[in-house]
Amino acid sequence: MDNGVEMSGWMRWFAAEDGGRRKPHPGGRYAPTAFASSGTVDDLWSIAFDDVPAGPGVGLGEGAVHARWLNGVGVPFAWGPGTRLIITEGPRPVAEVEILATAPGAERPWTFRVAESFGITGRGVGVVGDFTGAIDRSGLPAELQSRDELLVVSEVSVEFARIAGGERIALLLRGVEKDQVPPGSMLRGCVL
């Protein structure tokens, strides 16, 4: 896999009635093919996503994603920020991704997909969602990717929230506003 360049973007699954997947993808790692929306299915290239949102027909069906070309040498079309990719399974389009940014690839210690955010007066923004990996300690910065922007959260603390009969990991974010952290956003631990 070419770990040289990582893409950050926003993915939206196509509904089954629009030709998308008949069975929802559960979310998580995903390795389909893609081509630029300005091209054709003849330009397919293998792509790997670290964590895609569940969908279609499950949850929001869209969210922040990070991906790499399986072999970044010889991609048959120009790509970069602003490029819209059509994600395919075989020749069938199942989703689209708008590339928001590119950066050198790096392994992240943890990721957190936001299901819900809420303001906590005097403390910051609380988020609940799906967590993967391990946070060494509270108080470290993180990258936040939403539909519209990529930014750095100055401090992330691990908290717990009582949700529907149980406790879940929640994070407390400082240095951002609630409207900057919509559902589907992704937080990732910074590589220090």
| % residues in beta strands | over 45%
Strand line-up in the sheet with most strands:
1-5-4-3-6-7
The helix count comes to 0
Low-confidence stretches: none
Structural class: mainly beta
Largest sheet: 6 strands, antiparallel, barrel
The radius of gyration over CA amounts to: 17 Å
Helix residue percentage: under 10%
Q: Measure the end-to-end span.
A: 23 Å
> What is the mean pLDDT?
88
Shape: globular
Number of strands: 13
Order of helices and strands: EEEEEEEEEEEEE
Description:
The chain is an all-beta fold and 192 residues long. The protein is 0% helix and 55% strand. The strands form two sheets. It has a six-stranded antiparallel beta barrel with strand order 1-5-4-3-6-7. The two termini are 23 Å apart.
